[in-house]
Amino acid sequence: MAKVKPFRGIRPPRNLVEKVASRPYDVLNSEEARKEAEGNEMSLYHIIKPEIDFAPGFDEHDPAVYVKAAENFQKFQDKGWLVQDPRECYYIYAQTMDGRTQYGFVVAAWVRDYMEGRIKKHELTRRDKEEDRMKHVRCNNANVEPVFFAFPDNAVLEEVIRKVTNEKDPEYDFVAPDGFGHTFWVIDDQYMIDLITAEFAKIPSLYIADGHHRSAAAALVGNEKAENNPNHRGDEEYNFFMAVAFPASHLRIIDYNRVVRDLNGLTPAQFLDRIAANFDVVDMGSEIYHPKALHNFALYLDGRWYSLTAKPGTYNDADPIGVLDVTVSSDLILRDILGITDLRSDKRIDFVGGIRGLGELKRRVDSGEMAMALALYPVTMQQLIDIADTGNIMPPKTTWFEPKLRSGLVIHKLD
């Protein structure tokens, strides 16, 4: 069962939150962060992307960069840009995008739940990326950015969300420059805190939606601290790491699409002939076509959109991996026709998050940069949960969650 606890969050004062809050470290590069933080010494980028405080081109993995992160974190606290709550709290964090709002609980999740598989993952992690985030956690002695969890719907926790958000004034309520709304409530009532802890204890598993490397790094550092402490008791703060946990029904996974540079020596007509062996192909004309259902794809090729519907027998709805459209397209189009076997390393393919819209696929093909684009129907939360529950791993570039968690609303210290 999932073990969570409240914690004494370190947060910006209400009047500074929009100055401090930032996008997550991994959705923009160093130069983009430098530009966004320009003229704003309170931007969290000075902690989560501290290379911006060095000359352009400075190695973001240089040891001096991690030292600068810790210096800046302390500076933010010394100047009162970040202040620790006087008592342990839970928090509710709401995100609004396109008129739709999702509500999550900000909690301290148990390291042992991750190490023993009760916090379930659906993606592989790379050791170099884990080590980068581990260094960041170590040098700050804190989880500066949260990870993104989902949990099976729970009626009591849904009622807690309703009660808190209807009866309490939010601590923060603002719209970020990207147009997404962020609203944040502090839960410091002991009855409500005990209720939240008890209800999470009834939930068998939590699921990592986004932030696999941050989850691994946070848990590994916590485990490392436990092993290195001869007086370890098990209740120390480093036994927990910060997450925002959303009811699964609140979340929406959007499409994650593919663009390919060439047709592997085929003409467009030959390519379509090859596809027709496994898909029903319908020419939809020049207007953008969106996939309508599972096993339906949108192909953009040579100025036209095509509907591709996988024929029976080309997928396995009884297999949590075989049912995925990313599996169908990777096997029958990318591998068998285009010769792309490694989605992680092949330079002929690129990936476009659905937040950019299918117009971005059209633009990249029309520009001549790419030869074709393939849009996929989004994965569902139930598919993600099924894969995690069966111990399987999703193929690369399968899920895209939006909106991303805003960093800097709250930080969790490990002591």
What do these coordinates show?
It is a single chain. The protein has 415 residues and is of the alpha+beta class. It is 31% helix and 24% strand. It contains 13 helices and 21 strands. The strands form five sheets. Strands 1, 4, 5, 6, 8, 9, 10, 11 and 12 form a nine-stranded mixed beta sheet that branches. A six-stranded antiparallel beta sheet has the order 15-17-16-19-14-18, sandwiched between helices. A two-stranded antiparallel sheet has the order 2-3. The mean pLDDT is 96.
Summarize the structure.
With 415 residues, the chain is an alpha+beta fold. Helices cover 31% and strands 24% of the residues. The two termini are 25 Å apart.
> Quick one: overall form?
globular
Q: Which stretches of 5+ consecutive residues score pLDDT under 50?
A: none
By DSSP (H or I, 4+ residues per run), the number of helices equals 13
**How many E-type strands?**
21
Radius of gyration: 23 Å
Beta content: 15-25%
Q: In this structure, how is the largest beta sheet organized?
A: 9 strands, mixed
Judged by helices, strands and strand pairing, the structural class is alpha+beta
How much helical structure, as a percent, in the residues? 25-40%
Q: What is the averaged pLDDT score?
A: 96
- What separation lies between the terminal Cα atoms? 25 Å
